[in-house]
Amino acid sequence: MKSILSFSLNGAPVEVLVKTTDTLLDVLRESLGYTGAKRGCDAGDCGACTVIVDGLAIRACLAIALTMSGKEVVTIEGLGKQGDLHPLQKAFHQHGAHQCGFCTSGMIVSAKTLLDKIPNPSQDEIVEYMSGNICRCGTYVEVAEAIQAVSGGKE
Amino acid sequence: MENVGYFAPSDVGQALELLAEQGSKATVLAGGTDLVPAINYYSLWPENLIFIGALGLDYIKEEGGKLLIGSGATWTQILEDPLVAEKAPALAQAARQGGSVATRNAGTVGGNLANASPAADLTVILLALEAEVLLKSSAGKRTVALKDFFTGPGETVMNDDELLMEVQIPLPAGSAAFQKLGRRKAMTLSVVNAGVKLNLDGDTCSGACIALGAMAPTPLRCSAAEEMLVGKKLDAALIAECAAAAVAAGSPIDDQRASAWYRTKAGTAIVARALAQAAGIGG
Amino acid sequence: MTEYVGKPMPRYQGLGEVTGTATYVDDVQYPGMLYVKVLRSPVARGTVKGLDFSDTLKVPGVVGVLTADDIPGVNIYGVYGDQLVLNPQDLRYKGEPIAAVVGRDEDAAQAGVEAVKLDVEELTPVFDMFEAMKPDAPIVRPGTTSNLFEYDEQGTTTRIIKLGDVEAGLKEADHIVEGRYIEAIQDHAAMEPQVSVALIDDAGRLTIHTHSQCLNYHLAQLCPVFGLSQSKINYLGGRVGGGYGGKNEINCDHIAGLAALKFCAPVKYRLTRQEDLAYTGKRGAWVFDYKTGVMNDGRIVASHIKEYHDSGAYCGFSPYGTEKCGMFASGPYNIPNILIEANTIFTNRYPSISMRGYSVLNGQVAADVQMSRIAEKLGMDPWELRFINAWRDGDMGASRYVVDGVGALEAMKRAAGMAGIELPDKLLQMSSRSR
After folding, report:
1. Across the interface, do B40 and A43 touch by the CB < 8 Å criterion?
2. Mutant choice from A52, A74, A100 vs C, greatest count of C C-beta within 10 A
3. Of B148, B155, B165, C137, which is the most buried if we count CB atoms within 10 A?
4. Of A39, A40, A92, which is closest to C18 when you measure between CB atoms?
């Protein structure tokens, strides 16, 4: 069964035909071509598909797309773009907080929701909040540095 | 999965009618954190999904001497709710240790119970808090004590036409604590977890509930261990003895997360820590 | 040039990564793209008795199946040319690809796989290297008589690396310390699961979008499978979502390419995280038996090491890994008498492949745990034991290489400093430049 799903994507209204079992990640990546959110595990474990729904970070791979009806979805593509980077994107780039880059969009999206909630997080708060985003290259130290740099840092 | 139906009822009555109509053909979808991976990995080919996220079941309130939590309340809501922090802080403590920020923003308390994993974190503390669940169907409603709710891994007493509406925690919720051991600190299922509730009369224990997770096919209440504490003053020796008795009630298995041997050893320590924390004994 | 040395530089292509516009293989899509799911062996060892796709072909959305018969070239790939792209017969490990189903989407392909009537006669597998070396063990490679890799045409199964006279050295030693070290398999678990996209491009070439870590190397393996020359394959790589050695192995490119050739359409074949964890190459298991002769003053005079490497069901990278591991298994220490005896053993596990610091680390971990055990036995500070024996310029390694520009002592001093450990002056005064 296919249904029409309407929601807001990065501030613009979207209508798309989806299957019941399509996840938000399927729809973003394969129906709409927004491939910034990555498919790392399809089970909510890795964090590479993290997106923002009504202000909260969620796993796009765990959300049945139709449940997004009427919601406001923001992806990495909505945070900033080349020539007009979000401060976190700039900081991740400057601090080398990415290596293979596959976890990076999820990391930046999670970090955005952290700073929305706690504008000046401590190192412990960063580590706890970001613990759901896995990086296998081992950029965790630089990720925390980049977030500190944007938030102004707090000892 | 071309032909899976989707229903998003906007009130409870509609949802119950759909469940009555469809019976075993309906799969109830809440936060999706357990259900969707099963679909993504083809271990579940559902016929129809009924999404219950629009039923207004995400409340947390105090009423009639009970803390009432709608089944749609998320882990994040529980973790951040001032009423939970005041009346049942151990529940918030458990919520904080489950999953990640993003999964806590989606996953619900009802889902954690209905999924009936023997290792579920909220479940084990709710079991210790002597919670009951309110089940509704188009034919009526009933409340079931959590200790009678689980019948096996992934199995509960719920009928196909019933919806888990609400969790009810009797107040006051005593002095309670939750402890968990996972393979890492975050984003991990419990190797073993424990919830305890003590009613303390000065420093004497007048009642105890001990619940243990990942140690048996269902989350477990350990009544023999509980009885050991009643009328006694808790100290390190009694706690150690009681923890051993609690774990003896389990029947742990070897799996990819831990061996039965390890679960027994670690479980004893986890129960002891929870007891010490609830009793306010240092260390 | 020097203005850049020692200074952090923003990553090349990094802007695409932070904005989400970097294109990884799974981000590539084409109109009308088909999807592949693979039928895998349900058993660790068995024989295919029946393979019936009649129900599969009735599944809505299934376009067709791909079997070994569809391979235009040879059904062989791998570093040692011993692995089958699709195995229709003698199954050697759980998860080995038997055939593929191609569908309009992944759900259809998966339903097609589940509809295959597969009849397999299960045989007793062997998972333990020492069991596999017994004379009556199940034979992993049909048509052979032993589970040991043969390094030459004379049938040599034990690789020997020899320096000095280990028997004499052990006799001379004041103490003999023995230890067995067992190392389990390890998965790369790169964030990007294995995936490939293949199609016939506008020049008529087979184009493959790959995350290969070694393009030319893989191209050389793929050409004979497709029966195409290199000029007929446009192998597009460059963007790897984490590899760590795991993308030195072909898991998807061969099957995606074959499907694109057969069905004349763009094809995507991607593994789920579960498939990636369960069925792709690992850093293999190793077991080491160390027998070390040491003098009262801490000087190591002899090291006899037996090395056993679990290759899994095919060679993977293992025979080479076994040799490389052996060369370094005595550690970064000056030992005049060394004997290393190394074996590569087949079991019914997934083929073992490269991973970060491939095979060298395995031996060195064992060597250094053995050093700690020796220090304990002598009642000596383990730092001191390592400092006494660490390589200096001009020392000789097990395979007779003379080491130069050594930094072991300097690295240990720095590590101690970072860990807040104060080393005694007599150690701090030592240098890798002289003994």
Report:
1. yes
2. A100
3. B165
4. A92
Q: What pLDDT, on a 0 to 100 scale, did the predictor assign at position A51? A: 98
**Tally of domains within chain A:** 2
- Contact: B6, A66; criterion CB under 8 Å: yes
Q: Is B188 on the interface with A (CB under 8 A)?
A: no
Residue pLDDT, tens place only, A46-102? 999 999 999 999 999 999 999 999 999 999 999 999 999 999 999 999 999 999 999
A153, pLDDT greater than 60: no
Quickly list DSSP for C375-405.
HHHHT--HHHHHHHHB--TT-B-TTSPBP-S
Of A24, A45, A79, the one marking the end of a domain is A79
Cα angle at C217 between C212 and C223, to 5 degrees? 95
**DSSP 8-state symbol, A28:** I
Question: Is residue C405 less than 8 Å (CB to CB) from chain A?
Answer: no
Segment B111-151, tens digit of pLDDT: 999 999 988 999 999 999 999 999 999 999 999 999 999 99
**B204 and B140 co-located in one domain:** no
Nearest to A42 among B33, B40, B105 (CB): B40
Write out residues in chain C with pLDDT < 50, as ranges.
Answer: none
**Same domain, yes or no: B188 and B156:** no
Which range marks the domain in which residue A145 is found? Answer: 87-151
Work out whether the CA dihedral B73, B74, B75, B81 comes out positive or negative: negative
Q: Is it the case that residue B3 has pLDDT exceeding 60?
A: yes
Q: Which residue has the tokens 């055990």?
A: C373
Claim to verify: residue B210 and residue B266 sit in the same structural domain: yes
Interface residue A58 vs chain B (CB under 8 A)? yes
**CB within 8 Å of C71: residues ≥ 6 apart:** C85, C86, C225, C258
Contact A62 B5 (CB under 8 A): no
Instruction: Find the residue in B nearest to A114 (Cα).
Output: B101
Contact check, Cβ <8 Å, A136/C240: no
Cross-chain residue pair B36–A61, CB shorter than 8 Å = yes
Examine the domain organization and report whether B156 and B222 are in the same domain.
no
| pLDDT tens digits along B60-80 | 999 999 999 999 999 999 999
Q: Please state the ipTM of this predicted complex.
A: 0.96
Domain span at B236 = 176-279
Q: Does position B185 have pLDDT exceeding 80, yes or no?
A: no
Nearest Cα neighbor of C192 from C358, C13, C27 is C27
Same domain, B136 and B237: no
Query: 3-state class of A98 per DSSP?
Result: coil
- Is residue A20 located within the same domain as residue A66? yes
Residues A75 and A30 in one domain: yes
Same domain, A105 and A70: no
The reply to whether C4 touches chain A by the CB within 8 Å rule is no
> What domains sit in chain C, N to C, each tagged with a CATH number?
14-123+193-279 (3.90.1170.50), 158-186+282-428 (3.30.365.10)
Q: With an 8 Å Cβ cutoff, are B101 and A21 in contact?
A: no
Q: Is B219 helix (H, G, I), strand (E, B) or coil?
A: coil
Secondary structure, 3-state, C54-82: CCHHHCCCEEEEECHHHCCCCCCECCCCC
Given B170, B189, B207, which residue is the final one in a domain? B170
Is the CB of residue B261 less than 8 Å away from at least one CB of chain A? no
Q: How many CB pairs under 8 A join A and B?
A: 97
| Å between C60 CA and nearest CA of chain B | 9
* Triad B92, B95, B97: Cα angle to 5°: 115
Is any Cβ of chain C less than 8 angstroms from the Cβ of A106?
A: no
Q: What is the structure's pLDDT at A155?
A: 38
Tally the domains of chain B: 3
Instruction: Determine the residue among A25, A39, A49, A135 to mutate to test chain C binding: the one whose Cβ has the most chain C Cβ atoms within 10 Å.
Output: A39
Q: Is C278 on the interface with A (CB under 8 A)?
A: no
CA C382 to each of CA B270, C360, C415: distance values in angstroms, whole numbers, following the listed order = 35, 22, 14
Question: Of B143, B170, B197, which marks where a domain is finished?
Answer: B170
Nearest to A80 among C19, C107, C240 (CB): C19
Torsion of CA B23, A59, A28, A19, to 10 degrees: -10
Which residue from A minimizes the CA distance to B186? Answer: A131
